[in-house]
Design the sequence.
């Protein structure tokens, strides 16, 4: 079994880098909230269009589900997933968003997907104090953050400061 490693770095940024990190935190929150809004809209659309046959199949255990090709196409097109939401957000990116690392958007969508999976799992297991439905994030929250792959911070800094 492969092990996953996580590296946490303590940063002491100068004024320029602190501004960039603040922008990235703001962009991550913006992406998460946009993705949540789009997820809710997509799910509402899915619920209006879904047929009773598909709903009946979803009530069966995973091993017993058998969808037709048309049903699979419908589900892949309308049922919200992190990949679908990311695809829609990427397609509707504005010019200012293209100047910021796309990894932030990818991670925000992945985090939202994980939050909905945990919510659905806890709801299915009828856990009383489990994960609630994902909610919009506030700028007033004490903790602000984002996730990136290694090396992106240094590459972005060079592009901004010119050093």
Sequence:
């Amino acid at each position: 079994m492969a092990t996953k490693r996580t590296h946490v770095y303590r940063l002491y940024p100068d004024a320029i880098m602190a501004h960039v990190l603040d922008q990235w935190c703001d962009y991550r929150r913006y992406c998460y909230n946009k993705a949540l809004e789009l997820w809710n809209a997509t799910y509402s659309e899915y619920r209006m269009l879904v047929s009773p046959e598909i709903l009946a199949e979803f009530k069966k255990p995973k091993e017993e589900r058998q969808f037709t090709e048309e049903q699979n196409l419908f589900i892949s097109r309308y049922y919200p997933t992190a990949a679908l939401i990311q695809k829609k957000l990427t397609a509707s990116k504005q010019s200012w968003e293209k100047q910021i690392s796309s990894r932030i958007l990818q991670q925000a969508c992945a985090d939202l997907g994980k939050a909905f999976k945990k919510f659905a799992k806890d709801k299915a297991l009828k856990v009383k104090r489990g994960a609630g439905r994902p909610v919009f994030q506030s700028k007033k929250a004490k903790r602000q953050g984002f996730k990136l792959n290694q090396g992106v911070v240094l590459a972005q800094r060079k592009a901004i400061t010119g050093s």
User: Anything to note?
Assistant: DSSP finds six helices and no strands in the chain. The first helix runs from residue 15 to 49. The chain has a mean pLDDT of 84.
